[in-house]
């Protein structure tokens, strides 16, 4: 018997081609699924409504504010924040159920190991070899209100690591990956500018990009993921370079 209830929160826009595996992976473990859709023009909403009647169509205020809106609707003891391009594997589902059945849960939040899958390969190294904080006790938790790369601020306490993988099908294809990288770089530029961060010039932007590649491909052993690991390291390097170029342009009123 479960001792604690689970809310799953999800934000969507035009995810009809991949949201169903995400919902299928949580449908039998969630006490409620909360979806906030920001104006899909495909049948994303209809697919989500097969799994939950708690679907709200709303405007878009940025990733952090949108996820906080979803969190505000949650009523469960615990919350799992999942993206439309993600899904729990069977090991993680079993571990999550076991956690909810405990009399006392040791931690107030859990990191979920990412199983990033790109171009037919699940990556094990580089920046993909990390865990993301997505499972947390609802009471006392909040999201940062950043435009992009928002994070969960959990209730005071310790953070554990859940067994299994949070599978992440991050790109539909290479073109989608390029579009996504450009979007995130520009949002990052705007976020840094709003927070008063300085670019310190274009040369440093180049050096940041070079360091990003070295960090991911060499220090974090992205080279062990083969050719896909190289592509990923180059993509992150380009994103970091573009982010600081955008910040420099905003500083100098050239946008």
Topology:
Blueprint lengths: L5 E7 L6 H8 L5 E6 L6 H6 L5 E3 L5 H11 L4 E4 L4 E3 L1 H11 L8 E10 L2 E2 L8 E7 L4 E2 L8 E2 L5 E3 L4 E3 L5 H21 L7 H18 L6 H26 L4
Parallel strand pairs: 1-2, 1-4, 2-3, 6-11, 6-12
Antiparallel strand pairs: 4-8, 5-12, 6-7, 6-8, 9-10
Helix pairs in contact: 5-7, 6-7
Features:
7 helices, globular, 20% strand, alpha/beta, 255 residues
Question: What report would you give on this structure?
Answer:
- The protein is built from seven helices and twelve strands.
- The strands form two sheets. Strands 1, 2, 3, 4, 5, 6, 7, 8, 11 and 12 form a ten-stranded mixed sheet that branches. It has a two-stranded antiparallel ribbon with strand order 9-10.
- The N and C termini lie far apart (57 Å).
- With 255 residues, it is an alpha/beta fold.
- It is globular, with a radius of gyration of 19 Å.
- It has helices at residues 19-26, 44-49, 63-73, 90-100, 174-194, 202-219, 226-251; strands at residues 6-12, 32-37, 55-57, 78-81, 86-88, 109-118, 121-122, 131-137, 142-143, 152-153, 159-161, 166-168.
- Helix 1 (19-26) links the parallel strand 1 (6-12) and strand 2 (32-37).
- Helix 5 runs parallel beside helix 7 (226-251) and helix 6 (202-219) runs antiparallel to helix 7.
């Amino acid at each position: 018997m479960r001792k604690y209830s689970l809310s799953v929160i999800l934000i969507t826009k035009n995810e009809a081609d991949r949201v169903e595996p995400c919902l299928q992976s949580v449908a039998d473990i969630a006490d409620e699924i909360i979806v906030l859709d920001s104006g899909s023009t495909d049948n994303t909403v209809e697919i989500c409504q097969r799994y939950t009647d708690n679907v709200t169509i709303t405007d878009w205020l940025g990733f952090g504010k949108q996820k906080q809106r979803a969190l505000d609707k949650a009523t469960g003891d615990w919350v799992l924040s999942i993206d439309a391009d993600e899904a729990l594997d069977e090991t993680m589902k079993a571990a999550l159920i076991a956690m909810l059945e405990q009399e006392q849960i040791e931690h107030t939040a859990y990191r979920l190991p990412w199983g990033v899958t790109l171009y037919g390969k699940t990556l094990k190294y580089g920046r993909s070899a990390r865990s993301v904080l997505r499972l947390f006790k609802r009471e006392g938790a909040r999201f940062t209100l950043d435009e992009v790369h928002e994070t969960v601020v959990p209730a005071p306490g310790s953070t554990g690591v859940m067994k299994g993988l949070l599978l992440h099908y991050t790109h539909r294809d290479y073109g989608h990956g390029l579009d996504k990288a450009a979007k995130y770089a520009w949002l990052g530029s705007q976020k840094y500018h709003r927070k008063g961060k300085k670019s310190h010039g274009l040369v440093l932007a180049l050096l940041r990009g070079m360091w990003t590649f070295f960090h991911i491909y060499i220090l974090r052993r992205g080279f062990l993921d083969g050719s896909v690991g190289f592509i990923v390291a180059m993509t992150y390097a380009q994103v970091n370079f573009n982010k600081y170029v955008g910040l420099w342009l905003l500083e100098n009123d050239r946008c």
